[in-house]
Protein backbone atom coordinates (compact mmCIF):
# COMPACT_ATOMS: atom_id res chain seq x y z
CA UNK A 1 0.00 0.00 0.00
CA UNK A 2 1.44 3.43 -0.88
CA UNK A 3 2.18 5.84 1.92
CA UNK A 4 1.33 9.47 2.29
CA UNK A 5 3.80 12.05 1.16
CA UNK A 6 7.07 11.90 3.04
CA UNK A 7 7.24 15.69 3.39
CA UNK A 8 4.15 15.64 5.56
CA UNK A 9 5.78 12.99 7.66
CA UNK A 10 8.94 15.06 8.04
CA UNK A 11 6.91 18.13 9.00
CA UNK A 12 4.90 16.04 11.42
CA UNK A 13 8.04 14.45 12.85
CA UNK A 14 9.68 17.83 13.18
CA UNK A 15 6.54 19.18 14.84
CA UNK A 16 6.50 16.19 17.13
CA UNK A 17 10.09 16.57 18.22
CA UNK A 18 9.71 20.32 18.60
CA UNK A 19 6.49 19.92 20.49
CA UNK A 20 8.01 17.48 22.87
CA UNK A 21 11.25 19.39 23.19
CA UNK A 22 9.47 22.59 24.19
CA UNK A 23 6.47 21.00 25.87
CA UNK A 24 4.08 22.45 23.29
CA UNK A 25 4.18 23.96 19.83
CA UNK A 26 3.94 27.64 20.63
CA UNK A 27 1.40 28.88 18.17
CA UNK A 28 1.15 32.10 20.14
CA UNK A 29 4.52 33.27 18.83
CA UNK A 30 3.51 32.57 15.26
CA UNK A 31 0.03 33.98 15.64
CA UNK A 32 1.00 37.12 17.49
CA UNK A 33 2.56 38.33 14.26
CA UNK A 34 -0.77 38.04 12.49
CA UNK A 35 -3.81 40.28 12.74
CA UNK A 36 -6.60 38.78 14.82
CA UNK A 37 -8.15 36.14 12.61
CA UNK A 38 -10.00 34.12 15.23
CA UNK A 39 -11.15 34.18 18.86
CA UNK A 40 -10.27 30.65 19.94
CA UNK A 41 -7.73 28.05 18.86
CA UNK A 42 -8.46 24.42 19.65
CA UNK A 43 -7.28 20.97 18.69
CA UNK A 44 -9.29 18.00 17.42
CA UNK A 45 -8.10 14.47 16.70
CA UNK A 46 -9.50 11.87 14.27
CA UNK A 47 -9.12 8.20 15.25
CA UNK A 48 -10.20 4.87 13.78
CA UNK A 49 -9.00 1.83 11.85
CA UNK A 50 -6.93 2.15 8.69
CA UNK A 51 -9.12 2.73 5.64
CA UNK A 52 -12.28 3.99 7.39
CA UNK A 53 -11.82 7.35 5.67
CA UNK A 54 -10.27 9.64 8.32
CA UNK A 55 -8.10 11.53 5.84
CA UNK A 56 -11.00 11.84 3.38
CA UNK A 57 -13.25 13.27 6.11
CA UNK A 58 -10.61 15.85 6.91
CA UNK A 59 -9.90 16.74 3.27
CA UNK A 60 -13.61 17.10 2.58
CA UNK A 61 -14.06 19.35 5.59
CA UNK A 62 -11.04 21.60 5.09
CA UNK A 63 -10.63 21.66 1.29
CA UNK A 64 -13.89 20.20 -0.03
CA UNK A 65 -11.88 17.50 -1.81
CA UNK A 66 -12.26 13.73 -2.07
CA UNK A 67 -9.61 11.23 -3.11
CA UNK A 68 -10.87 7.80 -4.17
CA UNK A 69 -7.51 6.08 -3.56
CA UNK A 70 -6.29 4.91 -0.17
CA UNK A 71 -2.95 6.47 0.68
CA UNK A 72 -2.17 5.41 4.23
CA UNK A 73 -1.22 8.17 6.66
CA UNK A 74 2.19 7.76 8.27
CA UNK A 75 2.16 8.77 11.93
CA UNK A 76 0.16 11.99 12.05
CA UNK A 77 -0.70 14.91 9.82
CA UNK A 78 -2.82 17.99 10.41
CA UNK A 79 -4.96 20.59 8.71
CA UNK A 80 -6.42 23.88 9.92
CA UNK A 81 -9.75 25.54 9.33
CA UNK A 82 -11.47 28.62 10.74
CA UNK A 83 -15.15 28.29 11.62
CA UNK A 84 -17.85 30.58 12.92
CA UNK A 85 -19.57 28.69 15.74
CA UNK A 86 -22.24 30.27 17.95
CA UNK A 87 -20.91 33.72 17.06
CA UNK A 88 -17.32 32.76 17.93
CA UNK A 89 -14.53 32.61 15.38
CA UNK A 90 -12.81 29.31 16.05
CA UNK A 91 -9.57 28.14 14.49
CA UNK A 92 -9.47 24.35 14.60
CA UNK A 93 -6.30 22.38 14.22
CA UNK A 94 -7.36 18.87 13.22
CA UNK A 95 -4.92 16.00 13.62
CA UNK A 96 -5.32 13.06 11.26
CA UNK A 97 -3.80 9.90 12.70
CA UNK A 98 -2.61 6.69 11.06
CA UNK A 99 -5.01 3.80 11.68
CA UNK A 100 -2.31 1.19 11.24
CA UNK A 101 -1.26 -0.59 14.41
CA UNK A 102 2.46 0.06 13.90
CA UNK A 103 1.99 3.84 14.37
CA UNK A 104 -0.03 3.61 17.59
CA UNK A 105 2.91 4.49 19.84
CA UNK A 106 3.33 7.77 17.95
CA UNK A 107 -0.34 8.63 17.63
CA UNK A 108 -1.14 7.98 21.30
CA UNK A 109 1.21 10.83 22.20
CA UNK A 110 -1.28 13.23 20.59
CA UNK A 111 -4.32 12.18 22.62
CA UNK A 112 -3.57 14.16 25.73
CA UNK A 113 -3.48 17.51 23.94
CA UNK A 114 -6.81 17.07 22.16
CA UNK A 115 -9.91 18.90 23.29
CA UNK A 116 -12.16 16.93 20.91
CA UNK A 117 -11.96 13.47 19.33
CA UNK A 118 -13.82 11.93 16.39
CA UNK A 119 -13.99 8.13 16.55
CA UNK A 120 -14.57 6.82 13.03
CA UNK A 121 -15.68 3.45 11.71
CA UNK A 122 -16.71 2.35 8.23
CA UNK A 123 -20.36 1.24 7.90
CA UNK A 124 -19.22 -1.43 5.38
CA UNK A 125 -16.74 -2.97 7.87
CA UNK A 126 -17.94 -4.80 10.99
CA UNK A 127 -14.40 -5.10 12.32
CA UNK A 128 -13.83 -1.34 12.16
CA UNK A 129 -17.03 -0.97 14.20
CA UNK A 130 -15.96 -3.59 16.78
CA UNK A 131 -12.60 -1.86 17.10
CA UNK A 132 -14.32 1.34 18.26
CA UNK A 133 -14.33 -0.29 21.71
CA UNK A 134 -10.55 -0.42 21.63
CA UNK A 135 -10.23 3.16 20.32
CA UNK A 136 -12.61 4.40 22.99
CA UNK A 137 -10.69 2.59 25.69
CA UNK A 138 -7.43 4.17 24.46
CA UNK A 139 -9.11 7.58 24.60
CA UNK A 140 -10.19 6.90 28.20
CA UNK A 141 -6.63 5.96 29.04
CA UNK A 142 -4.65 8.65 27.22
CA UNK A 143 -6.89 11.67 26.58
CA UNK A 144 -7.80 14.33 29.16
CA UNK A 145 -10.95 13.70 31.22
CA UNK A 146 -12.63 16.73 29.75
CA UNK A 147 -12.14 15.64 26.14
CA UNK A 148 -15.31 15.69 24.01
CA UNK A 149 -15.99 12.76 21.68
CA UNK A 150 -18.38 11.96 18.86
CA UNK A 151 -18.90 8.70 16.95
CA UNK A 152 -18.93 8.73 13.14
CA UNK A 153 -19.96 5.90 10.80
CA UNK A 154 -18.41 6.88 7.47
CA UNK A 155 -19.08 5.69 3.88
CA UNK A 156 -22.84 6.10 4.26
CA UNK A 157 -23.06 6.35 0.47
CA UNK A 158 -22.20 2.62 0.27
CA UNK A 159 -25.67 1.49 1.40
CA UNK A 160 -25.57 -1.72 -0.65
CA UNK A 161 -22.34 -2.75 1.13
CA UNK A 162 -23.55 -1.83 4.62
CA UNK A 163 -22.53 -4.26 7.41
CA UNK A 164 -23.27 -2.08 10.42
CA UNK A 165 -26.93 -1.04 10.85
CA UNK A 166 -27.43 2.56 11.82
CA UNK A 167 -29.21 1.48 15.02
CA UNK A 168 -26.05 -0.30 16.17
CA UNK A 169 -24.05 2.87 15.70
CA UNK A 170 -26.64 4.82 17.62
CA UNK A 171 -26.70 2.26 20.42
CA UNK A 172 -22.93 2.21 20.80
CA UNK A 173 -22.78 6.00 20.82
CA UNK A 174 -25.43 6.11 23.56
CA UNK A 175 -23.50 3.57 25.62
CA UNK A 176 -20.50 5.89 25.57
CA UNK A 177 -22.55 9.07 25.97
CA UNK A 178 -21.50 10.32 22.55
CA UNK A 179 -23.43 11.92 19.72
CA UNK A 180 -23.59 9.91 16.53
CA UNK A 181 -23.39 10.83 12.85
CA UNK A 182 -23.37 8.78 9.69
CA UNK A 183 -21.27 10.59 7.11
CA UNK A 184 -19.99 10.30 3.59
CA UNK A 185 -16.78 12.04 2.65
CA UNK A 186 -17.56 10.92 -0.89
CA UNK A 187 -20.92 12.70 -1.21
CA UNK A 188 -20.17 15.35 1.44
CA UNK A 189 -22.92 14.18 3.77
CA UNK A 190 -22.88 15.34 7.41
CA UNK A 191 -19.21 16.36 7.29
CA UNK A 192 -19.60 19.99 8.34
CA UNK A 193 -22.30 18.99 10.82
CA UNK A 194 -19.98 16.50 12.60
CA UNK A 195 -16.98 18.81 12.88
CA UNK A 196 -19.07 21.80 13.87
CA UNK A 197 -20.99 19.84 16.50
CA UNK A 198 -17.75 18.57 18.05
CA UNK A 199 -16.40 22.12 18.10
CA UNK A 200 -19.58 23.30 19.84
CA UNK A 201 -19.24 20.55 22.44
CA UNK A 202 -15.64 21.60 23.12
CA UNK A 203 -16.64 25.25 23.50
CA UNK A 204 -19.44 24.27 25.89
CA UNK A 205 -17.08 22.09 27.93
CA UNK A 206 -14.73 25.08 28.26
CA UNK A 207 -17.42 27.59 29.09
CA UNK A 208 -15.53 28.87 32.10
CA UNK A 209 -12.45 29.74 30.02
CA UNK A 210 -14.70 31.16 27.28
CA UNK A 211 -16.53 33.44 29.74
CA UNK A 212 -13.25 34.62 31.22
CA UNK A 213 -11.88 35.26 27.73
CA UNK A 214 -14.97 37.21 26.62
CA UNK A 215 -14.66 39.46 29.65
CA UNK A 216 -10.94 40.04 29.07
CA UNK A 217 -8.92 42.19 26.68
CA UNK A 218 -7.02 39.21 25.32
CA UNK A 219 -6.91 39.01 21.56
CA UNK A 220 -7.67 35.31 21.41
CA UNK A 221 -7.98 32.22 23.56
CA UNK A 222 -5.45 29.52 22.78
CA UNK A 223 -6.93 26.36 24.27
CA UNK A 224 -4.04 24.31 22.96
CA UNK A 225 -1.74 26.28 25.24
CA UNK A 226 -4.24 26.11 28.12
CA UNK A 227 -3.77 22.42 27.83
CA UNK A 228 -0.01 22.84 27.92
CA UNK A 229 -0.47 24.86 31.09
CA UNK A 230 -2.66 22.11 32.56
CA UNK A 231 0.00 19.52 31.71
CA UNK A 232 2.58 21.65 33.44
CA UNK A 233 0.41 22.03 36.56
CA UNK A 234 -0.20 18.30 36.62
CA UNK A 235 3.49 17.53 36.40
CA UNK A 236 4.32 20.16 39.03
CA UNK A 237 1.77 18.62 41.33
CA UNK A 238 3.36 15.22 40.89
CA UNK A 239 6.66 16.22 40.86
CA UNK A 240 -27.66 11.45 16.49
CA UNK A 241 -27.78 12.64 13.83
CA UNK A 242 -29.25 10.90 10.75
CA UNK A 243 -27.64 10.98 7.34
CA UNK A 244 -29.74 11.91 4.40
CA UNK A 245 -27.31 10.59 1.79
N1 LIG B 1 -17.43 5.19 -0.80
C1 LIG B 1 -16.69 5.91 0.06
N2 LIG B 1 -15.37 5.72 0.13
C2 LIG B 1 -14.68 6.47 1.02
C3 LIG B 1 -15.30 7.43 1.86
N3 LIG B 1 -14.33 7.98 2.65
C4 LIG B 1 -13.18 7.41 2.29
N4 LIG B 1 -13.38 6.51 1.33
C5 LIG B 1 -12.36 5.68 0.67
O1 LIG B 1 -11.79 4.82 1.65
C6 LIG B 1 -10.39 4.64 1.40
C7 LIG B 1 -9.58 5.01 2.64
O2 LIG B 1 -9.70 6.39 2.91
P1 LIG B 1 -8.63 7.19 3.79
O3 LIG B 1 -9.23 8.50 4.11
O4 LIG B 1 -7.31 7.20 3.13
O5 LIG B 1 -8.57 6.25 5.09
P2 LIG B 1 -7.84 6.50 6.49
O6 LIG B 1 -8.78 6.14 7.56
O7 LIG B 1 -7.26 7.86 6.54
O8 LIG B 1 -6.70 5.41 6.42
P3 LIG B 1 -5.25 5.37 7.17
O9 LIG B 1 -4.52 6.60 6.79
O10 LIG B 1 -4.59 4.12 6.64
O11 LIG B 1 -5.51 5.27 8.64
C8 LIG B 1 -10.07 5.50 0.18
O12 LIG B 1 -10.07 4.68 -0.96
C9 LIG B 1 -11.21 6.51 0.13
O13 LIG B 1 -11.48 6.99 -1.16
C10 LIG B 1 -16.71 7.60 1.75
O14 LIG B 1 -17.35 8.39 2.45
N5 LIG B 1 -17.35 6.79 0.84
UniProtKB/TrEMBL annotation:
It catalyses: GTP + H2O = GDP + phosphate + H(+). Its cofactor is Mg(2+). One of its GO terms (cellular component) is plasma membrane. Its main location: membrane. It is found in: Cell membrane. GO terms for molecular function: G protein activity; GTP binding; metal ion binding. Belongs to the small GTPase superfamily. Rab family. The GTP bound form of RAB15 interacts with REP15. Interacts (GTP-bound form) with MICAL1, MICAL3, MICALCL, EHBP1 and EHBP1L1. The small GTPases Rab are key regulators of intracellular membrane trafficking, from the formation of transport vesicles to their fusion with membranes. Rabs cycle between an inactive GDP-bound form and an active GTP-bound form that is able to recruit to membranes different sets of downstream effectors directly responsible for vesicle formation, movement, tethering and fusion. RAB15 may act in concert with RAB3A in regulating aspects of synaptic vesicle membrane flow within the nerve terminal. NCBIfam families: small_GTP. This is Ras-related protein Rab-15.
